[in-house]
Fold this protein.
Amino acid sequence: MGKTLAYKILEDHLVSGELRQGEEITIKIDQTLTQDSTGTMVYLQLEAIDPGKVDTDISVAYIDHNTLQTGFENADDHAFIKSVAGRHNILFSKPGGGICHQLHLENYGKPGATLLGSDSHTPTGGGLGMIAIGAGGLDVAVAMAKGTYSLNVPKVIGINLTGKLKPWASAKDVILYVLKELSVKGGVGKIAEYFGPGVAALSVTDRATITNMGAELGATTSVFPSDENTQKYLESQSRGGDFLALSADDDAVYDEILNVDLSALAPLAAMPHSPDNVKAVSEIGEIVVNQVAIGSCTNSSYTDLMKAAAILKGRRVHPDVSLVISPGSAKILSKMAANGALQSLIDAGARIIENACGPCIGMGQSPQSGAVSLRTFNRNFKGRSGTQDADVYLVSPETAAISAVTGVLTDGMAKSESLGIGLPVIEDETFEPNTNFVIFPPEGGEGDVVMGPNIKPFPRGEALAGKVSGEIVLVAGDNITTDDIMPSDSRLLPYRSNIPHLSNYCFEKIDPEFAKRAKAAKSGVIIGGDNYGQGSSREHAALVPLYLGIRFVVAKSFARIHRSNLINSGIIPLTFENLSDYDKLSLGQNLAIEDAISQLENEIIEIKDEDSGEIYRTINALSDLEKQMIRAGGKINMLRSEN
Ligand code: MIC
Ligand code: SF4
């Protein structure tokens, strides 16, 4: 039986376990990346593990999220991360260099390698034919220390690409189409592997747009073959030596197959407030647009921005539209400054902002009240832009740029001719290496850790006791995001290293009383719907509930990274055996897991309503390793007890 590319790479990196779907395996991790908003926690935890030099081929600490520096907090975090990176042989990528995923693709990603990153969009690297996985910060800290990561072997869904995209249809439309078909939970427990004749018609940066937004499927990762286009891309980045041809066997067997005819795709948009709420632009109609934002780790490549520049050249941004552009990297911006494309954008009336995440995570550029904002980003969760009542639509760079000119959502495929707006083919470019934004760790590397006053210790769980009990402090609906659990914007991101401060804002957008209620209860339980914890990798969405006394979460189902983050923190994730029990639970009920230590060994854990005596049966899907963590009160406690 032929092998999928995903399983070939996993097999090459297998340290222990059997590569069989559902089994727990441990794989060797070749590379890691962190960014600053998860990074402060990662490096506090790394210091707590204290590994000496990291055990990977390359580990990079990027600064790209918290770059507003409206107070001392962000800059203190940067200095802290730089100091720890220097001690452990980690490269430090300064603010201004660009967005972590774009930079990693340009400079370090490698076909056939494994990458673990403390950011959910780490699978961007899959565009180069690598297995790149997003994880919680502690998992990345441990991967740096030990060079390994454990996971349950996912299924592989094959996405068979045929045909070729027509002008004005874009890689973004491919992944929006896949999201429409599979939904935001359709990829949970799966790897999305792309294959078929259509692959050859997509460049590496197109592929990276698609694998990047595979995170929105809930997939463990997404991967493309490594072929001539991969070689061309690596050569264009002066890294031809890193090329390795890789593909699935011709007779590879996939668990499921989705067929996508690229030539049939027209411009699409994800409508408010979910990335899978996808419709054709033509179907949505010409709604008036207030803001257009082009950038983010999904769509800020050289080709993406050159397309926007070509559309805007000699034209004017519509008077009622604010167009903001955040390039993916300094190399891209520099090239566009040299070839005149930057001038086209500026002359048209675009606002050029820093090479960073920026508006994608609400760090500035919040749109006006009730605005329609078209964004080339990957998430349009309610309020993420910083404006609670804004309607954010996710679109391709082509759709964004033409709509910035017309002032209404515009289907370029249908309208460009009558508007007289052409879209030339963007020629490939070569990029000189530029390490001026990178600080290489000093020889010896034994500097001091630099810690500003905003950096507070992180909470630690307690070893599992005989009885675990708590009051229900929240009953949440389906598809709760980590943005709902622990909001992130320009007001809160500076406090990523200050859990006590963040705790006041936990769940604030969906239940402003939550923090107060949880603090009063002292020991709490959260009830969740389907796909609880979808979205980011931020472990703050587990550490803050831990700080607020949450002991266990019972949900209909969990998103992958958040489930791991809960376990890493010592919070027990359980799912309902009977989904109808969800409707029986409400705020204020007192629940208990009696004989928790012995029940932890069972496949079903019984939860008792302490007032009525009613029993709710829940599924315990913890692996042996995960049980060990829960027993110890979290991963750090477990690691400490092993030493
Ligand atoms: C995001 O896009 O939501 C983030 C901000 O990049 C997060 C990480 C974080 O919360 O710091 C992610 O995707 O993991
Ligand atoms: Fe940054 Fe947005 Fe990408 Fe997250 S999704 S890494 S905030 S650009």
The domain at 5-264 is CATH 3.30.499.10 (Aconitase; domain 3). Residues 72-87 form the longest helix (16 residues). The chain has three domains: 5-264, 279-419, 468-636. The pocket of alpha-methylisocitric acid (ligand 1) is lined by residues 37-38, 65, 119-121, 361, 488, 535-538 (CB under 6 Å).
